[in-house]
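step: validate -> pass
step: tokenize input -> pass
step: predict -> running
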Amino acid sequence: MRVKKIITHIVVYVLFVLAVIGVCLAVKTQGEKKKTSKNVAVDTEKTSTEKVTKTETKTETETETETEPEPETKEPVDPADEYLETVKFANEDEYVDCINDRYEQAGTEDDTDMTETENNLDEVSNQNFDLGDVDTDDLSDDDSFESFDKHKYDMLSSVDYTYSKFDKTSEINAEAGFLVDLDSLDILYAKNGLEKRAPASTTKLLTALTVLEFLDLDEEVLVGKEQEFVAADASACGIKEGEKYTVYELLNGMLLCSGNDAAYTLAYYTGLRVYDRLENSEIYEYNTDTRDGEYAPECDDTNVYAADSNEAKKYIDECVKYMNKNAEEMGCVNVNFETPDGYDTEGQYVTAIDLARIGVMAKNNIVISDICASTSYYDKSLDVTWQTTNELMNKNGEFYNKKVDGLKTGSTGEAGKCFVGSASDNNNKFISVVLGSDQNGRWNDSNYLLNAGFKYMNK
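step: predict -> pass
step: emit ->
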């Protein structure tokens, strides 16, 4: 009985131990399941986060790619093309043909001293500088047209001074003078730069710039009653009323031998174009965007030919108004033109500094530059050779300067002797202005300014 009781206790004990072991195993298994489930949840969350992050990054990258346009590749601008955009109606082939004709007409090399056309295809630039003047204390080696703002005119108490970057003790004898580097626009010399002076025939540089905006070089025009406005004692190239001439011929007559008669005929026909543009006239059909169509009727049309002086005066005045508009757009602030030839007229004036600006623009114009660089032009219509009035280009004269290649003389009783000059060597180009001088003085003063400029820049 006792043995049976012991066995029963043993069995109960074993069962108890087994139960405890079973409970422990169950608890352990449940814990592992929870841990595994938690890890899976964490891994899932991590994976989801990574996917979202990658998606956002990809979206941002795509957005940045979409918002950043590819840089445009700009083709270089050909200087000749840029020039043709500036001189609005001058076709390159027509210009070259005219130049070639002129070379054939000019005769031997002894009769003329012309530059190669292709050497004058300089890029038209320096269009947006501001001219003005300041007191000499405000000038430095870095001063150029850009720094001469218009408001600085108010700083001047007097325009009677001389500023020079080279010889401080020297002064030209002319009433006013100016010298500027054509490329850098550095001002090297200024005497009475703001003094109002009569412009004389230096006006014709602005006339030529205006003409070339409206007229083709090979266009023929008929000389009319506009000639009645040419003063009896004015310089003339000898064109005749009722005769036809090309615009290119008249430009040579106006710029080389300073023909006031050529200036008035060019101004009349330019004024016609100005008037028609302003009034949107239906007389002429011309697409200014494509440059297609006929801009004007034949030159012998009675609607164009100046049959009386009143009609001529109307259109000449339109040209002069546009000349003043051109000068203003160039930045000139102290000029007023009343005639296309610069003959003495009340209320007509220019300053040396503003005339220098016009000279820079004229020199950067291939047509004007080429004509003014010539010493003569043979006109077959008149069977006459027009000689330049620029004594600095006269190889047989006492004032000859081999570096001088233009530009325009002027002479009236009120203006005195004037000259806008241009000169260049392999390194430098200059524009000079001399106003209110005498016959020999303008050449001496111009040579002094130009030679001093080369010496200063090449030292």
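step: describe -> The chain has ten helices and ten strands.
step: cleanup -> pass
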